[in-house]
Each structure stands twice: as structure tokens, then as C-alpha cells.
Amino acid sequence: MVMGYPGIASSFGNNPLISAESNFEVSATNGHISAIKTGTIGVPLLQSDVAITHGNSGGPAFNDRGEVIGIATAGAEQQGFNFLVPINTAMEFVRQTGVTPSRGAFDQHWDSALDLYDSGRYQKAIAEFDNAMQFMPDLPDAKKYRASAVIAEDQLGFMQRMLETTGKAPVYAVAVILLLSVIALMLRRKQPALQPSMAAAAAGASVRPSVQPARPAVPSASAAPLPRTVVEKSYGSIQFTSGPLSGRTFKVEKDGLWIGRDPKCGVLLSDETVSGEHAWIVPVDGTVMLIDKGSSNGTYVNSTDSPRVSKVGLKSGDRIFLGKKGPVATYFAT
Which of helix, strand or coil describes residue 197? Predict the structure, then answer.
């Protein structure tokens, strides 16, 4: 898959159908490596049928694991014959210049924003999206994720907002203090009361032995039981292997994972082939189910040649196709 900004799909390429606001919407095209050639200066070239044109030059080419394997370099007028410089060749040129590859400030803020967003710390994610847009003000994905983070922040409950603001450590500290207080109160209630005869004996007085034996102390019904450790059940995760979220992993929670273009979805995809609420992955009676929510382009498992699914149980390693030409993800049970 090659990602880039072909002129034919932008207003600066004189396409009257495309608005200027869409110039920063990246284009992703898929293809195959059809041959390995040798260039005129002796370096290898990867021949591919992936669709690229003017404006794609310099864009990365990925394999299905999200690894960069080459750089889009040249194309022929005949469709299906384009060429990529292998990434190891490109990195050799970089090393010869004495440059040390490093991550720029935009990448650091962008990765931090996405990590904060995925962990539910929306307030801090909004600030990091703002930092990223200082470098790329018109980046569509940054605008969409920031808007989604604002909506999610507004919908947080009191406890969630407190956790987001203070972090987990202060909340855990308060919980431990309360637990110790409850245990201390329980221990005090379980101690037997001092009988009058025992009190007098302690004071040195002569007393008659009590006819009635002391009654054993009865534990208070209001005493709280000691907490038990509960192991949270795992429902697996999905990892995208193509599309705008390629390489990203999303955990399937107990209440399910929504996929679509709607900002309320847990997996937000800016892809026109994906419906607003395209699919739902949710645990049902011990099985993780994939449910198509009436999408326009359908949902397929393992092959787009198979019938589109409405509801099907997932197995580890199953590939999920959102439409025949849309993003693809793999489900992992653990």
C-alpha cells in the first residue's frame, strides 16, 4: 500500500471536483510487487502495479504488517508499471550522508495525542492534538480526532473525570485508607465486652462468680466483607493491516467495540467506504461476535469473495474486511 498526495486527487492538481480543504486528505492505494528490477545506476527497483502518479513521489510503501518497504519513485504511462526504491537502499544513502534518522517534534506530539486518546485521557489528548496542529494546521485526522476527544470528554462521568484529572494513584491511596478503616472498625466490634466480674477482679475487689456464662461476641451484620481479587476477562483485540488506521490496535471491551465514521465509535475511520456505524464487535454468551450494522458496503470475514456477514462468531486470526475495498483488520483472541 502506497500513501501520498497524488495531484490528480487534489485541487492543486487542477482537478475541478476536489476542494482545497481535501488537499491534506492522504490517498492510500493497494497493489502487488510484480518484479525486482535493477536501475541504470545499479540499485534495485521494486516493480509494482500499485496506482501512483505525479505527487506520490517520496511517499512510503507499506507491507501488510505496516512496515515501510520502499519509496514511490517513478511510474510509466502504461498503467500497472510503477517503481519503488527499496527502503534498505534509501537508508544506505541516508547513512552515507552522515545523517542520523530521528523522530521530529510533530511525530512525538502526534503519537502522544493518539496514546492519550486511546487510554481515555481526552483532556490531555486535546492539548496534544493542538500541539500537533501547530506543525500541520490543516491535518484532517488531527481535526477529527480532536473533535471526537471533545465529545468524549463532555460525556465523562464524575469518577472518570476525577481519574483523568488526578490519575489513579491518589484514588487508590484513598481506597486503601478507607479499606484499612473498615478493617480496624471490624476488629474493634469483634472484641468481647469486659464482664462486671472481670472488671471487679481487675480492681482487686471480692466478687461472686457470675451464674450466667458470658455470651460469645456476635460479629456485626454491618461489617463489610474483605474484598476479593477479580481477574478481568479478556475479549481480545483487533489490529488494522490496511486503511487509515493501519498498524493501530484496539481492545474489545465487555460492552463491545464500535467501528465506523461516527465520532462516537471507539474505532473512528475517516474512510468513505465505511458507514457511520459500520460494525460492532461484542462478546455474546462466551463468543466474540462480529455484527454488521446495516453498512452500505458490507462486512466480510477472511475473504471478500465470501458472502457478506450479518452476525458471525470470530476466531483468533480472522481477517475483517470493512467493504470490499475498505480497511482490513485482524482479530486476536488474546
Answer: helix
